[in-house]
Design goal:
repeat, single chain, 1130 residues, mainly beta, cell membrane, 8 helices, glycoprotein, disordered N terminus, disulfide bond, transmembrane helix, six-stranded mixed β-sheet
């Protein structure tokens, strides 16, 4: 008979209204402990067709329910209800009950149900009188229960237990030795029955312990178990509990071993202060001898328990219901095991099979009943009983003989939906007798399904272990037996799995912040997903939580938001989830319970209990209050530390508080500790920062940093100020002053050295001897001027000044340095005096020379030198006159080009603003520029210094020229100024061009050219805004002086140059760099191009038209066409 019939026959019989033998569906446990405060209910429920009737036996004999008014049976049920609420007694109904359910097809019986009532036996309990140090056992003797009741002892509260006082497995309370404190009037044993949710208590026990001095120590003896050996039988699969409780003084310690073996790992536990050995899930391998040893300093004792593991009967094969058709055969098998091996006995309809009515189709063979050629009269309920001395098993199995054609119970056209790569189970629940054969087909004309791709279950279900998208379709189930055939269609759809493609991530957030978790899913388009967020595996919805498009946002995060967040994406077919942890951090909570211990004059120990760190490890900082309202930082310790030794000062009223610090910030300060006032003492230290300085030439001002309040160490803080002139043999002069920071000594010589010391004292005495410091009385102005002042002119802008130092005695103070006053007397080129503006340079220390930068060339200067101390300047040295040599001139003040003709231009200029010497000539260089902006040959003209204009003749008509113009002194050439100009066009050519300009085609061409130029300008403008090259810069670079490169090569500034391309107007990169650094201070004191103004600052040579020397060129410049001429002005 197939397994599936055992599970679904009942449903089928009821659905099809077929006859069915009785089946027990519900019954009370074999051992039933009833609650004496409630009615007794003994359950017995069964089903069958027709519905069964019920009867009961009690203690093996028929229980006549009608004769006892307290006993009733629930309607349509076999359950007994015994009313004991009205003066009934539960113990009157104790016994063994068994229920029988019977109909025309057979009879089924229940287990034997043992009814017991847990009542405490009444007894008179005498007070216990025991001598101090003796053992004591208080007996509990609780009533039986299943499961056994939980025992505990109390007086006013639960009694604490330890190695000396503990409770045994039987509920008794054991004292290894009693103490006077064990005296009590109300030792009460309580039994809690979890099954009935009741608690019962025993009568209180009084214990009085009387003193016995001296106490006599003794070696251990066992209180339980008694003797040296015992035996223990435990059933397989149960928990083995072995116990050894010993008495003795001092209290013994228990140790366990297994003789000839090891205690099983992972299944062995020690309880009740190692007095109980616990081994869970025992098997036959745990049989053996277990030894406990009780030991104290006076000796030991032991006990050996021989454990035998037996087994109550357990099923190997329980009998299963049989549904047969007439003429068929089958077997009922009842196989069980146990230790000892159980005995198998059969019953038919509740009667031993030996005395049951005979059935020729039935044959009993030990644990098997064989049926052959059954008929309808063969229907019955058979019971198998497997029993040994440790228990029994009872199973009902019916044999039902029916003749029925196949029937399919699964609804037609049922739709199954599964997720791809998961099993698909297509049902074909059927019934028939004989049992029908089942076949499956796919599609309308599909062949029978076979092979490894499918699993065919006995209940008709077709399993596709790994369903794929191509598994989608219609499947047909066919059931047939000798009485007929039937089929049914079901449909399968395979869907894409739901996936989380973006999972939430671990987050750390500070309290009161906001955080969000993302959860993005991908799913089958025909399924509608829902996303649910769980916190710590529970739905947690608050107003601060916002879920939008699957993402979870939490506003104003609190500590309660800390936890594990799970995104669960559900469809009707599958569910996926992803988790992330949210850790909420914040500043730590303040420490609390501050306590001061170890109170000494100079130290104290502070301890505290740290507050919660709010998920961020802490370091702790401490503040001590030294004066009212002011907290001072004291020390810092590791966050794991809870005590610190603090150094204290005398005569301070201390109070401490603790602040915890983590990565987020500082906690609120803890509550202040108790106050502690240290004893007064002499000062430990003297004032710091002692100095002696004079504010006037005849005094000495002694100043110091006074001690702070907590450094005074006692009341009456004062200072002893002492001084004497150094190296003159004077005695110390001392004065005691109040708590101030300054004392003035009058009548001192000018700038005399003094030895000074300041000592602290209070009402308890003086501080240690202070260190001496050297100070000076007040300064006065220096007496003499430096002598032998000499000036050496280095170049046209720099001079070096020398002088002899003054004697140190004449300084009359701290020498700070020398100061030079210098001013310009006359510009030699202009032969006139100018406004005198004196400049000052100070040189620190005992110097004898200094440099004067920024002088103007070709000028007359005066200077004097003075010595400087802390009081001021001394007298000036005699004025010293010196002159600077000529330098190179500045650029001409302007260059104008006027009166252009066909072949001439007129040049006008102004003399240099700063000639820096006598001008000897001007130099003019010029060269043509052709239509492609290339430079032509360079021409040079030397012009007398007294000239201010020049007419250049024999120039090309309609040609652009570039001019370079600079002045010269005997030292060299100055900076140049540049300009460009164009000669006018030939009149005949102009006339022709005017005629052309009146032509329509030329006008159209010019418009097209103008439009093209406009487009190019727009493009260039856009490129410039995007970082492109500025076209004006290109033009300026193209007009750069072509003679710069050879000039630089001459002076050796650059080592590597590429020759300038013939006719090119673009300078080399090095030339551009040189021009860009024209205002550098590299040539300070050496070159002639830079100078200093009157206040010593540097003036760079800047000019809007300033350029370097022109380049030489030998290419001729062609006259430009009208178009090129126009382009040259664009």
């Amino acid at each position: 008979q197939s397994n599936f019939q055992v599970k679904i026959y009942t449903h089928i019989f009821l659905l099809l209204k077929l006859s069915q033998p009785p089946t027990i569906t519900q019954q009370s446990p074999k051992d039933y402990i009833v609650d004496p405060r409630e009615n007794i209910v003994i359950q017995c429920e069964a089903k069958g067709k027709p519905p069964p009737s019920f009867s009961w036996t009690r203690n093996g004999t028929h229980f006549d329910i009608d004769k006892d008014a307290r006993v009733t049976v629930k309607p349509n049920s076999g359950t007994l209800v015994i009313n004991i609420m009205n003066d009934g007694k539960a113990e009157a109904y104790e016994g063994v009950y068994q229920c029988t359910a019977r109909n025309e097809r057979g009879a089924a019986i229940s287990n034997n149900i043992v009814i017991r009532s847990p009542l405490w036996t009444k007894e008179k309990i005498e007070p216990k009188h025991v001598r101090e140090g003796d053992p004591l056992v208080l007996h509990c003797s609780p009533p039986a229960g299943l499961p056994p009741p939980i025992i505990f002892w109390m007086d006013n509260c639960k009694l604490p237990q330890n190695e000396r006082v503990s409770q045994g497995l039987n509920g008794d309370l054991y004292f290894s030795n009693v103490k006077l404190e064990d005296t009590r009037e109300d030792y009460i044993c309580y039994a809690r029955f979890n099954h009935t949710q009741t608690i019962q208590q025993k009568q209180p026990i009084s214990v009085k312990v009387f003193s016995a001095k001296p106490l006599t120590e003794r070696r251990p003896t066992l209180l339980t178990p008694v003797g040296s050996t015992s035996n223990k039988v435990e059933l397989r699969g149960n928990v083995l509990l072995l116990e050894c409780i010993a008495e003795g003084l001092p209290t013994p310690v228990i140790h366990w071993i297994k003789e000839s073996g090891e205690l099983p790992i992972n299944r062995t536990f020690f309880e009740n202060f190692k007095k109980t050995l616990k081994i869970v899930d025992v098997s036959e391998a745990d049989s053996g001898k277990y030894k406990c040893t009780a030991r104290n300093p006076l000796g030991s004792t032991h006990h050996t328990v021989t454990v035998t593991v037996k087994a109550a009967p357990y099923w190997i094969t329980a009998p299963r219901n049989l549904v047969l058709s007439p003429g068929e055969g089958g077997t009922l098998i009842c196989r069980a095991n146990g230790n000892p091996k159980p005995k198998i006995s059969w019953l038919a309809n509740g009667e031993p099979i030996a005395i049951a009515p005979e059935d020729p189709s039935r044959k009993v063979d030990g644990d098997t009943i064989i049926f052959s050629d059954v008929q309808e009269r063969s229907s019955a309920v058979y019971q198998c009983n497997a029993s040994n001395e440790y228990g029994y098993l009872l199973a009902n199995a019916f044999v039902n003989v029916l003749a029925e054609p196949p029937r399919i119970l699964t609804p037609p056209n049922k739709l199954y939906q599964v997720i791809a790569n998961n099993p698909a189970l297509l049902d074909c629940a059927f019934f028939g007798s004989p049992v029908p054969e089942i076949e499956w087909f796919k599609g309308v004309k599909g062949s029978i399904l076979r092979g490894d791709l499918y699993i065919f279950h006995d209940n008709g279900t077709l399993e596709i272990p790994v369903a794929q998208k191509d598994s989608t379709g219609t499947y047909t189930c066919v059931a047939r037996n000798k009485l007929g055939k039937v089929q049914n269609e079901v449909h399968l759809e395979v869907k894409d799995p739901t996936m989380i493609i973006k999972q939430p991530e671990y987050k750390i957030i500070q309290r009161a912040g906001q955080v969000s978790f993302e959860c993005t899913i991908k799913h089958d388009p025909t399924l509608i997903p829902t996303i649910t967020w769980l916190k710590d595996n529970e739905i947690h919805i608050v107003c601060r939580f916002t879920i939008q498009k699957g993402s979870l946002a939490i506003m104003n995060v609190t500590d309660k938001d800390d936890g594990v967040y799970t995104c669960v994406a559900n469809t009707t077919l599958d569910s996926v989830s992803a988790t992330a942890v949210l850790t909420v951090v914040d500043r730590p909570n303040p420490p609390f319970d501050l306590e001061l211990t170890g109170l000494l004059d100079r130290s104290v120990q502070l301890s505290w209990i740290p507050g919660y760190d709010n998920n961020s490890p802490i370091t702790s900082m401490f503040d001590g209050m030294h004066e009212p309202g002011v907290w001072h930082y004291q020390t810092e310790v590791r966050g794991t530390q809870t005590t610190v030794q603090l150094k204290l000062s005398p005569y301070v009223n201390y109070s401490f508080r603790v602040i915890a610090v983590n990565e987020i910030g500082r906690s609120q300060p803890s509550e202040a500790s108790e106050q502690y006032l240290t004893k007064a003492a002499k000062p430990d230290e003297n004032p710091s920062g002692v100095q002696g300085i004079g504010s006037e030439p005849d005094n000495l001002v002694i100043i110091w940093e006074p001690l702070k309040g907590f450094q005074s160490n006692g009341p009456g803080l004062q200072y002893k100020v002492s001084w004497r002139q150094k190296d003159v043999g004077d005695e110390w002069t001392s004065v005691i002053v109040a708590n101030v920071s300054k004392y003035i000594v009058s009548g001192t010589p000018i700038f005399a050295p003094y030895e000074i010391k300041v000592q602290a004292l209070n009402d308890l005495g003086y501080a240690p001897e202070p260190a001496e410091v050297i100070g000076h009385s007040g300064e006065d102005l220096p007496m003499v001027a430096p002598g032998n002042v000499q000036v050496h002119v280095v170049n046209s802008t720099l001079a070096k000044v020398h002088w002899d130092p003054v004697p140190l005695k004449t300084v009359r103070g701290h020498l700070q340095g020398y100061r030079i006053y210098y001013w310009k007397v006359q510009d030699l080129s202009k032969r006139r005096r100018r406004h005198v503006e004196k400049k000052i340079l100070t040189f620190s220390g005992n110097r004898t020379h200094g440099m004067l930068p920024g002088l103007e060339p070709y000028s007359s200067y005066k200077l004097n030198v003075r010595v400087v101390n802390g009081k001021g300047e001394g007298p000036a040295s005699p004025d010293k006159l010196f002159k600077t040599p000529e330098g190179v001139p500045s650029s001409p003040s302007f260059l104008k080009i006027t009166n252009p003709t066909l072949d001439s231009l007129t040049l006008e200029w102004g003399s240099p603003t700063h000639p820096n010497g006598v001008l000897i000539a001007y130099t003019l260089k010029f060269q043509p520029i052709n239509s492609t902006h290339e430079l032509g040959p360079l021409a040079e003209i030397r012009v007398p210094a007294n000239e201010t204009s020049l007419i250049l003749r024999n120039l090309n008509y309609s040609t652009r020229y570039k001019f370079y113009f600079y002045a010269q002194t005997s030292v060299g050439s100055g900076s140049q100024i540049t300009e460009e100009a164009v000669t006018i066009m030939d009149e005949a050519v102009a006339s022709r061009q005017v005629d052309i300009a009146t032509q329509g085609w030329f006008i159209g061409l010019m418009c097209a050219v103008a439009l093209l130029i406009l487009i190019l300008l727009i493009v260039c403008f856009i490129r410039r805004n995007k970082g492109g090259k500025y076209p004006v810069k290109e033009k300026e670079d193209a007009h750069a002086d072509p003679e710069i490169q050879p000039m630089k090569e001459d002076d050796g500034t650059f080592e590597d140059h590429k020759p300038l391309k013939k006719g090119s107007r673009t300078p080399s990169d090095r030339t551009v760099k040189k021009e860009d650094s024209d205002d550098s201070l590299v040539d300070y004191g050496e070159g002639v191009n830079g100078q200093f103004n009157e206040d010593g600052s540097f003036i760079g040579q800047y000019s809007g038209k300033k350029e370097k020397e022109p380049a030489e060129g030998n290419e001729s410049s062609e006259a430009p066409s009208p178009v090129n001429a126009m382009n040259s002005f664009v």
